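Our consortium's second objective concerns turning raw sequence data into structural hypotheses that experimental partners can test. To show how far this objective has progressed, the report includes one record in full. It was chosen at random from the queue rather than selected for favorable results. The single chain below, 270 residues long, was entered without modification.
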Amino acid sequence: MKEFVNFPPVKNIFSRFSPSGEAYSSNEFLASYHSQRELLFVLRGTFRYMMNDSVYTMTPGSVALISPGQNHACGYREIDNDLLHLWVFIHDKGMHGIIAKVFHGVHANISTVKKPIMFSHEMKQLILKRWTAFEEFDKKDDLTVKQFMQIPLELILNEVQLQLNNFVSSDSNHSVSWFIQSYIRNCNGRFCTLEKLAEITGYSPSHISHSFQKEYGMSIGDFIDEVRVEYVSHALSRNIKHKIIAEELGFSSAKAFWNWKQKFPELQKK
């Protein structure tokens, strides 16, 4: 019988209601926010993570609950090393996860792209139901978060363990192109160069370009623009400054963002 791979149990849960953590300098982390929910499970290693305009020390068994519109760190830093993380993304079309192994700020998706970690509709509904319930609960503290979320979070870990050990099927027929479009949406197109996408999928740039065009009827670059336009429309409706939007989308400056924005008539009146 094969050996079962275990993850650390859920010990600490951080959310937008957690007490303030440590202060940090403005250039220490790249900040991000978006309209979907995310979960970060720390499986191995200790690192500092920015959310709630504070920094928290996260150890194995820590979980970060990232709500829509919540400010949080984007990507990894050079000092982040020998880490194993599970990222779970909850979006309109479902709920899926990737496992990232991090060495000196460079992360690689080590869960297979051909068979991504997918979660059932029932699992997604349970997470959303509990998450919404504790956010609406009068008393919002770490104990309340644990009471509402600890068991659902442990169910996620258990499901991932079973899938990775091939004890259950994810029932997923998603292609590498599906993974790429999902990854681009999760990042709002930020730093999604063809070379980067090839690196995380393990396929050549020409292969993923051809496959994506065939499956979605558009180039990866056009899809990135589509995702960016959607994000900008949402951000400008919330009066987010151009400088902040430019940083979120990975533009080198507000001017570069402005020049890109001029290509899209639907953004001219915003």
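The partners drew two points from this record. The chain has a mean pLDDT of 86. The domain at 175-270 is CATH 1.10.10.60 (Arc Repressor Mutant, subunit A). Both points have been shared with the crystallography group to help prioritize constructs.
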